[in-house]
Amino acid sequence: MMKLQKGNMVIGQSGGPTSVINGSLAGAITQAKKEKNVGTVYGMNFAIEGFMKGELIDLGKLSAMQLKGLRDTPSSALGSSRLKLKDEHFPQVLAVLKKFNIRYFHIIGGNDSMDTINRVEQYCRKEGYDLYGVGIPKTVDNDLFGTDHTPGFPSAARYTALSVLQSATLARDMQRVDQFVIYQSIGRDAGWLAASSALAKRDDKDGPHILVLPERPLNKNKFLAEVESVYKKCGFVSIVCGEGAVWENKTPISASETKDKFGNTEFGAMGGTSAAMALHKLISANFKGWRGEFQVTESLPMCASDRMSEVDRSEAFELGAAAVKMAAKGTSGVMAALKRVSNSPYKVELTSAPLSEVAVHAKPMPDYMFTTNGFMVNKKFFDYVKPLVGSLPEYACISKILVKKGS
Question: Coil, helix or strand for 3?
Fold first, then answer.
């Protein structure tokens, strides 16, 4: 807590988008207009990269209708960036803060964004400039430390569950043409999103049958044995893999060596290869005569507003508002967060987590959410994610009882 300071506010959207990131923006703007200590509300044009150039947007001019519309608009309305701040950038950041008398600093983002807020806030404190920095969480990967889940994940999980439900239904009916199908989900280091593909399963024969996730390094022989076992039981194999899945020696299944600006391995199209493609080649090479396909959605789950989760829509707005409320009361150096109080009925509380911890920790899937063989998730995972995603359709299935000759 610091001494209350009157001034202007700035907010940015960083990293990959989500279906509800603009909902958090709308929540922050709406709350800022209620705060006596907050003057003009600025938006960063293309995140911290545009901010350092003084590219600001007056968000206070948005109408009530525009704010309402933002809640159902996918992608990042302000424009995003993946620029990683270097030490030489901070004097320029401070200069812009002073020029526009900005005292309230918010970014909607993931680990790297929380690190940016933390470093900017610490630099300003060292330089004697009062700044209240509070982060607003988002990421479809759901790997952000300090919160039960992140806005963006429930909607992306719903997108993934519906996509795999439909593709697995197709694979079931096309099994005499294609013996297997592989769906690749985004998620560099965590399998939350890929695991959500199993939400619509009604029994063991429904796809997906096999999950290949970053938390569980893959043994080739065990994987191929599981593929063969599933095929014998179901007549086809539905596989879902996370883009960042690795072999037992911790090398990426995708074999990608391309790095982004943060030193992270690029997967999918950005890396010029994919885990799904590698697994497809492995299966094709070991099961002669098998035909299959792989599906790589890349960023589509990040911006599918037609599959938005109602829980996600509501919580994104509330977290945006909560972050501004915290800062306006003098709180700084934290991220607004969610704490689950009850699962049935589903209930959460708004809380906070220190930016210093969020920036350096990740939240992989815990071991207790996996089945014994590691190729599927169990009831504890479903109990966690089902309240976030909402109800899913159940498709009709014909019981194939073949008629006997002469009947």
Answer: coil
CA-based radius of gyration for the chain? 23
Check residue 395 and give its pLDDT.
92
pLDDT digits (tens, 9 = 90+) for 336-369: 999 999 999 999 999 999 999 998 888 999 999 9
C-alpha 352/C-alpha 371 separation (Å) is: 32
- Under 8 Å between Cβ of 7 and 328: no
CA nearest neighbour of 217 among 248, 241, 189, 171: 248
CA within 13 Å, CB half, 62: 25
Reported residue count of the chain is 407
- Burial string for 161-200 (b: 16+ CB within 10 Å, else e) reads bbbbbebbbebbeebeeebbbbbbbbbbbbbbbbbbbbbb
Report how far residue 56's alpha carbon sits from residue 279's, in angstroms, rounded to the nearest whole number. 46
Retrieve residue 170's tokens.
Answer: 């197709």
Nearest to 319 by CA among 338, 345, 303, 295: 338
Domains defined along the chain, listed by start: 7-151+306-358 (3.40.50.450), 159-302+364-387 (3.40.50.460)
141 is catalytic: yes
Tokens of 75: 């992608």
Q: Which candidate in 115, 141, 189, 312 is catalytic?
A: 141
The values of phi and psi at residue 227, to 5°, are -60, -45
CA dihedral 237, 238, 240, 246 (to 10 degrees): 10
pTM tops 0.85: yes
